[in-house]
Amino acid sequence: MTGRWQMIAALTLCVAIFAVNWGALDAAQSMISGELPLTTVTLMMVIWAYPLALLAVLIPVRGRLSVLLYGLTAFGLTSAVGAVAVGGGMLIACRLGQGLAAAIVLRAGFELTRTHFRGTTWWPALVAPAVVALLGQLAGPVIGGAVTWYFGFRFVLLLGMPLAFIAVLAVALCTPRTHPAPNHP
To answer: pLDDT of 55-99, one tens digit each?
Structure first.
């Protein structure tokens, strides 16, 4: 049987992937513009499409676990398509898709957390993902820069696919299938 805290660990992995991905392409701007024919405005749209799409986290979701797994799958697929982008429009669309998928996963994870944690355990359950989000934001440009330096910017995007697959497995295996009792703290 899986527990609530194992679910939080799996959801924290998702947050880490999304937070690092946010800033990972920042360090690759010169390589992206060198490989793809992009204007300065298009390059900025590539960088800002992801956080802009993350605003969809404000949209409520239903079917929490299934929606979360579909969102992770969509994130992996849009990452793979972004890795083979042939132009700025395609890369922007993929970054928007990644951001939207991440927003869906984050919202569904938030709702799962609300379902399984009540009372005094609610806020401690959000601490680990919040701290990891902050650390991921700081680490994203560093990790993206290192991966870009050694493997190219396309590999930064391609990494989203296996990481999303690992996250799907972690969430699917670690999320409790039953709802807690109404008086469960």
So the answer is: 998 888 776 888 999 999 999 999 999 999 999 999 999 999 999
Q: Distance (Å, rounded) from C-alpha 137 to C-alpha 19?
A: 5
Rounded Cα distance, 101 and 104, in Å = 5
SS3 sequence, the chain? CCCHHHHHHHHHHHHHHHHHHHHHCHHHHHHHHHHCCCCHHHHHHHHHHHHHHHHHHHCCCCCHHHHHHHHHHHHHHHHHHHHCCCCHHHHHHHHHHHHHHHHHHHHHHHHHHHHHCCHHHHHHHHHHHHHHHHHHHHHHHHHHHHHHHHHCHHHHHHCHHHHHHHHHHHHHHHCCCCCCCCCCC
- Asked if 112 and 129 touch (Cβ cutoff 8 Å), the reply is no
d(CA 26, CA 46): 9
Q: What is the pLDDT of residues 30-61, one digit of tens each?
A: 888 888 888 899 999 999 999 999 999 888 87
Report pLDDT digits (tens) over 113-130: 888 888 777 888 889 899
Q: List, for residues 9-23, the tens digit of each pLDDT value.
A: 999 999 999 999 998
